[in-house]
Design brief:
Bound molecules: 5-O-phosphono-beta-D-ribofuranosylamine
Radius of gyration: 17 Å
Order of helices and strands: EHEHEHEHEHEEHEEEEH
CATH superfamily of the largest domain: Formyl transferase, N-terminal domain
Strand content: 15-25%
Distance between the termini: 19 Å
Low-confidence stretches: 1-5
Mean pLDDT: 93
């Protein structure tokens, strides 16, 4: 698809407030922070469910307020989610980004933020939901792998797909090499989708997901490795 220059629309002088939920190394968080210098969005808060992750150091290095809400500190998922919701609501984000947040969120929690939570999943959804996607595509002798950005709904990895990036699998690829390639592609795709949301090119309107006013196909907007190469300096 033809990339169009982003221009702030409804958020002309007010960057979109993005809260990022993490649980790991935070490489996607880093890509999002790096891209936030476009002034269309700002990472205003990082929350990790795991206290010992490198992603928190990335937030600290970027002077972004960050905190831990550890699921282990609560007797139930409901109590964990209540605490998380309190922290999120105190920050009043326009958009919540799941970036390696490894907790399953309940329907009740997700319903509070429908249309304003995005996730990135390392597979070409609706295929390969769940974990260990890189090994699973190799075991299945697939020719293609990729990553998908989707709105979060109560169904795990099942919300409407906004965009996908598709990469060929080579005979020499391992789960580790695929992980590296897919993550590099994620770092290209996720900030792009966030920018679309920030400038209102991407809209979630009840059951409709619109991009520049037109419904997005159920497979999401499609990209491939040539799109990445085309935008690298
Ligand atoms: C990403 O590969 C993403 O697809 C998955 O979790 C991983 C997070 O990695 N949801 P990082 O913490 O952003 O490095």
């Amino acid at each position: 698809m033809s990339p169009k220059t982003e221009t702030p629309s409804t958020h002309a002088n007010v960057p979109c407030r993005v809260l990022v939920l993490i649980g790991g190394s935070g490489s996607n968080l880093q890509a999002i922070i790096d891209a936030s210098n476009n002034h269309f969005f700002e990472v205003v808060q990082v929350i990790s469910h795991n206290p010992d992750v490198y992603g928190l150091k990335r937030a600290q290095a970027a002077n972004i307020p960050h905190q831990v809400v550890s699921h282990k500190a609560f007797a139930s998922r409901a109590l964990f989610e209540q605490a998380l919701q309190k922290k999120i609501d105190a920050c009043a984000p326009d958009l919540i980004i799941l970036a390696g947040f490894m907790r399953i969120l309940s329907e009740q929690f997700v319903q509070n933020y429908l249309g304003k939570i995005l996730n990135i999943h390392p597979a070409l959804l609706p295929h390969y939901k769940g974990l260990n996607t890189h090994q699973r595509v190799i075991d299945a002798n697939e020719s293609w792998h990729g990553a998908s950005v989707h709105f979060v709904t109560p169904e795990l990895d099942g919300g409407p797909i906004v965009a996908q990036i598709k990469l060929p699998i080579k005979s020499t690829d391992s789960a580790q090499s695929l992980k590296q390639k897919i993550q590099a592609a994620e770092h290209w795709l996720y900030p792009k989708v966030i920018s679309w949301f920030a400038v209102s090119r991407l809209n979630h309107n009840h059951n409709d997901i619109l991009f520049d006013g037109s419904p997005i196909p159920t497979t999401g907007l499609q990209f491939n490795d040539h799109d990445i190469e085309g935008t690298q300096q």
